[in-house]
Every structure is written in C-alpha cells, then in structure tokens.
Amino acid sequence: MRIEIFSDVGCPWCFIGKRRFERALAQFPHRDQVEVEWKSYQLDPSLPEHDARSEVEYLTQAKGMPEGQVRQMLGHVTAQALDENLHYDFDSLVVANSWKAHRLIQRAKAVSLAAAEELEEQLFSAHFERGEDIGSEQVLAELGQAAGLTAEQVGEALSDSSWEDRVRADLQEARALGVTGVPFFVLDRKYGISGAQPTELFAQALEQAWAEHQPLQMVSPTAGPGQGPDDGPQAGLDGQVCGPEGCD
C-alpha cells in the first residue's frame, strides 16, 4: 500500500502530523507492506532565500494578522508540538525559502524513500527546534549528509536543474489532487487526509485503505452437511466461464 505525504519543511503542523502518522503506522499490523513517499509543497514561494524578519514579524506582515493573535497562534502550535515531544523555538526560528530544501529532498528520494524521510526529519528539527537556516547551502549540505547523502549528491541537488523539475512535478500533482494546504496524506490514491489529524484517525484510515487494497478473495462452493466433494447439487460445478478461446 502506498502513502504519499505532501509537506513543506517550513510548515509547523507538518512535523506534528509526521509524528502522529508515524505513531499510527507503528501500530499498524501491515506496516512492513506500506510504502511512504514524501512529496514537495511550498506554502510561500515568494519568500526570499534569506529573510531577516522573525517568525512573528513575517506572519504579521505576510498574513496581515495582529501581533497578539500571531503570538497566541504560535503558542498553541508550540504546545501541540510538545505533546509530540517536539520542542519548537519560534523565537530562534530563521525564516527561509524552502525551495532548495525541496530540491535536496528530491535528490534523497532518488537514493531511497528512507533517505528522503530521514532528510525530512533532519530539516524539520533544524528549522523548528534548533534555529538553523534551511535556506543556507552549507546547512543543507550538513543535513543532507546527516541523512545519508554524499557530498557529491548534495552538490548535484543544488546545481542540477533536473531536481527543480521534480519539485515542480510534485507541485503540479498537488494542484491536480486539489491540495490547498499541508500536511496532506494520500492513501493508495483513494483517500485524502488534510492536516495533522489525531493518531486515531490515521489508524482508522490505514485499516480502511488496507482492506480495500487487498486482492479479491475467491469464493467457491463447499459441500453441505453429510455431503462429500462429489455429492449433492454442487458436485461437478467448477465455475464455468467464457474466455478468449471460448466457453467451458
């Protein structure tokens, strides 16, 4: 079964949603048969590569929200993150464009889905917990190598435009699916889950998607009480069918 997660590493709810989904997946009995792919999404492509504003200043100016409301919102998000053992520090957060980070994620996916998932983890933690600049190529190089990429692979991600094409392909796919916010989880291209939902909802969705993912169970006639395999009205019926070569 395939799970696609559209996410932006500059989205605080995406890290929280990652933790809640991971907990549901860890409890899922068929987790070893689930493939998880992280997809690129950008909440604010207009951000400069390096932004000197604080997160409060950025949200106040970009979203037109009163500063008090912004601080209240960030306090709520911080408390929700702490429930997932994530330690957000919005006072130290460096506002940055996530475009180059997405290029690196695409390069990591070409190595393995596991490498991309580890890079997502590294980027989220660096951005929200450690106050690192995820728009900096030096920081991205360190995080990429911490996720298992080589220095050459990181350099390729930041210099070869083909990785930009892959980011754009994800963005186009998100638009086609009607994704307007992240995190957004797509289960087997049948179900969509918007937002950092409770773990219980993810667990329920996994069970439902898995049930529909399984191949058809074949039903065949069985002998009734006191009947042998060659007795009774069902004897000799093998389920006659018609095929390209004719009918039974």
UniProtKB/TrEMBL annotation:
SUPFAM superfamilies xref list: Thioredoxin-like
Origin superkingdom: Bacteria
GO molecular function, one term: isomerase activity
UniProt keyword Isomerase present: yes
InterPro entries named in the record: DSBA-like_thioredoxin_dom, Thioredoxin-like_sf
Compositional bias segments (type: Low complexity): 228-240
Pfam families documented for this protein: DSBA
Keywords tagged on the record: Isomerase
Domain DSBA-like thioredoxin residues, every copy: 3-206
Gene3D superfamilies, per database record: Glutaredoxin
Region (Disordered): 218-248
Protein name: Predicted dithiol-disulfide isomerase, DsbA family
